[in-house]
Amino acid sequence: MIPILDYSRFTGSDSAGFVADFGRACRDTGFVVIANPPVSSTLRTRAFEMSRSFFASPLADKVEMSIARSPHNRGYSQVGEEFLDEKSGIRDSKEAFNIGLDLAEDDPRILAGEPFRGVNLWPDLPGFRDTMLAYFDAVHAFGVQLHRAIALDLGIEEDFFAGHLDQPLATLRLLRYPAATGAPGEIGAGEHTDYGTITLLTTDGVPGLQVRPRDGAWIDVPQVEDAYIINIADLLMRWSNDVYVSTPHRVLPPPAERYSLAFFLDPNPDSVITALPGTGAAKYPPVTGADYLASRLNATYEHKFGT
Ligand SMILES: O=C(O)CCC(=O)C(=O)O
Ligand SMILES: [Fe+2]
């Protein structure tokens, strides 16, 4: 039900076939596994290693970079700080670290107080910053390429999305899930949909991620080595006037400690999201990228993000 597609088809001689299969998945479960991604496995491995060292550092060091002190959605979120399924009231067992578009302290957008524009917080770990910035750029570029496939599938200009994704509200999120303890009601990450356009996720191979198609039961996401799990998120569902589907998913308490790297691609803050050409009469009012993200993050955290 969740297709596995080979990215080399897109860059090679079967671009149209890839676009058709990818588009079908976007309309169907909204989840697809992509093998042979354009992100080097060396870089991916280094990012996992750095993530492990970060989470292994003392809690006191990690909470110094607490996301609760950041109005820009950057920094560390400790075990139990979030509930992705806010209705359940059950807190997620994961811990996380968020990295955004890297800006200098004196960037005019920061000085102007633009929403979500801030400096990243960096742990004192040799190589961490360089690795994460290289990884951010590689996955961002991959995400932009996938939006070319999306545009082709939707029959709009191939580079339609490029100008909406060049200074994005994207977040690279390092995630660590402790092994299941068996406590009642325990959950790694509660049932939710993602907020942005697409999410590009890669895991260390420990299972846990499940998807619930809107008309069905929970299914496990297939594990493919070195692959990326791509899913449609809510803002692209809205942008596509519900032609594409953002599907609920969750992470079960894993059988062993589990690491993943999620890249949430949200558009530029001032992008105005209205029904894409050819998708019929708009079902939703226009919204900016920044206002939409703020509304969603404020439901997940107890502290507030302003715009
Ligand atoms: O870690 C995973 O496998 C998925 C995480 C996820 O869905 C999220 O953070 O939005
Ligand atoms: Fe998610």
UniProtKB/TrEMBL annotation:
<dbReference type="Pfam" id="PF03171">
    <property type="entry name" value="2OG-FeII_Oxy"/>
</dbReference>
<dbReference type="GO" id="GO:0009693">
    <property type="term" value="P:ethylene biosynthetic process"/>
</dbReference>
<feature type="domain" description="Fe2OG dioxygenase">
    <location>
        <begin position="164"/>
        <end position="267"/>
    </location>
</feature>
<comment type="pathway">
    <text>Alkene biosynthesis; ethylene biosynthesis via 2-oxoglutarate.</text>
</comment>
<dbReference type="InterPro" id="IPR026992">
    <property type="entry name" value="DIOX_N"/>
</dbReference>
<dbReference type="InterPro" id="IPR005123">
    <property type="entry name" value="Oxoglu/Fe-dep_dioxygenase_dom"/>
</dbReference>
<dbReference type="InterPro" id="IPR050231">
    <property type="entry name" value="Iron_ascorbate_oxido_reductase"/>
</dbReference>
<keyword id="KW-0479">Metal-binding</keyword>
<dbReference type="GO" id="GO:0046872">
    <property type="term" value="F:metal ion binding"/>
</dbReference>
<keyword id="KW-0266">Ethylene biosynthesis</keyword>
<protein>
    <recommendedName>
        <fullName>2-oxoglutarate-dependent ethylene/succinate-forming enzyme</fullName>
        <ecNumber>1.13.12.19</ecNumber>
        <ecNumber>1.14.20.7</ecNumber>
    </recommendedName>
</protein>
<dbReference type="InterPro" id="IPR027443">
    <property type="entry name" value="IPNS-like_sf"/>
</dbReference>
<comment type="similarity">
    <text>Belongs to the iron/ascorbate-dependent oxidoreductase family.</text>
</comment>
<dbReference type="InterPro" id="IPR044861">
    <property type="entry name" value="IPNS-like_FE2OG_OXY"/>
</dbReference>
<dbReference type="GO" id="GO:0102276">
    <property type="term" value="F:2-oxoglutarate oxygenase/decarboxylase (ethylene-forming) activity"/>
</dbReference>
<keyword id="KW-0408">Iron</keyword>
<dbReference type="Pfam" id="PF14226">
    <property type="entry name" value="DIOX_N"/>
</dbReference>
<keyword id="KW-0560">Oxidoreductase</keyword>
